[in-house]
Amino acid sequence: MIPDFASAGTPATPLHLVTPDSLEEALSALPAPAEAWARAQGFAAKPGEVLALPDAEGGLAAALVGLGDAAAARRGRFAAAVAADRLPAGTYALAGSPSPAIAEETALGWLLQGYRFDRYAKQGAVKTALLCPEGVDAARVQAIAAGEALTRDLINTPASDMGPADLEAACNTLAQRFGARMAVTRGADLIAKDLPLIHAVGRAAAPDRAPRLIDMRWGSEGPALTLVGKGVCFDTGGLNLKPGSSMGLMKKDMGGAATVLGLAQMIMALELKVRLRVLIPAVENSVSADSFRPGDILHSRKGLTVEINNTDAEGRLVLADALALAAEEDSALTISMATLTGAARVAVGPDLAPFYASEDSAAAAIAAGGAAVADPVWRMPFHEPYEAMIEPGIADLDNAPSGGMAGSITAALFLRRFAPAPYVHFDIYGWNPKAAPARPKGGVGMGARALLAALPQLLDL
């Protein structure tokens, strides 16, 4: 659940965004009782600092929200969003003339701060509303917030209610809403349709959680854009069983699929002129007598053979078949998103979305897009000298090179063997381990807003 902006014309309390540099000017411009109150409270415009200001009769005259200084802005984002939960109930409107970037970030942050995952327990709804700031495209911001909410909902839903069939149902709901076309290949049909890696990873699951490939298409004009999302709805590790401490968050192992679907919703809601294709291999990596095994050599759709040295490196396998399928059609750009490696998290932590790009121009556009919309990304290298690490000798490829070095890079190189060019791959975390402004603890989209901002340049829209 995510709120909307207040209706235009609703009476609203002024909301002043204040930095330490603008503090004195902001306080001096207030009515005398409000100024005296702010000074008495020691308001210093620290990031996320919120103060309600009384009028002469003790009512609510205005509110101050601190943004912090430039260094604080570099250290965090969505500082003003916390006001949505900390201010008294009511409707607010930005006062003064904040820059377009700050106004848009505040507007989006306010909506994202109001997100609640209430499927299983009631959550206190946000009691404040914001008038969309002047000059901000309300429909665009609402579409972005709604796409992010979809991603969060899908990741936050436990595997008991988000297996492969449930992920398919979520895709079908999205397709019906926007008039997209959808085809699904399930179970043994994956073998008949030459998608053997997806079948191998998911075949150990119960029949009602059978593996499948979801193929959704939307749009009839413009450049072709293909999004591929890892949909491992739960990952036990397979026969290379994860320890309990590593299995606890594995409901989020379909975070790539969830993020792709959130981005797809944004694209469709904004009616971008693209021919969109979304491919999601949806599986559960389970343990049974039919599990694929360490030492097995599997065949892929592309014809390359893969030696299995760790059944817990399954995400790249299901993505490989989906990417090979994508490569059979011309596309202006193919993007994969996956909660793929712990190595990526060790490298950049949970806040940055690391990505790989086959073209420098695409990498520059994505980096610029991320900076513009407060969705931080970081380019990683397709370091070709490491290609030898994914070549085991008795098969074409190794799904889990030994040695523990460069795990995210070798996974990306593995995927590149199957993907068409130009190609971008995101190795995301998909989880916010600690609540932050506009980002509660739990599932979170990473990189989708950066990509949305970059698409005009990436696809020459």
UniProtKB/TrEMBL annotation:
Which InterPro entries does UniProt cross-reference here?
Answer: Leucine_aapep/pepB, Macro_dom-like, Peptidase_M17_C, Peptidase_M17_N_1
Pfam families, sorted:
Peptidase_M17, Peptidase_M17_N_1
List GO terms (cellular component aspect): cytoplasm
Q: Name one GO biological process term.
A: proteolysis
The UniProt keywords, alphabetically, are: Aminopeptidase, Hydrolase, Manganese, Protease
Task: Specify the Cytosol aminopeptidase domain's residue ranges.
Answer: 310-317
Instruction: Tell me a Gene Ontology molecular-function term this record carries.
Output: manganese ion binding
Q: Does the keyword Phosphoprotein apply?
A: no
Q: Is this entry keyworded Protease?
A: yes
Family listed: Belongs to the peptidase M17 family.
Q: Which PANTHER family match?
A: LEUCINE AMINOPEPTIDASE-RELATED, PEPTIDASE B
* Name under which the protein is recorded: Leucyl aminopeptidase
What species is given as this protein's source? Pseudoroseicyclus aestuarii
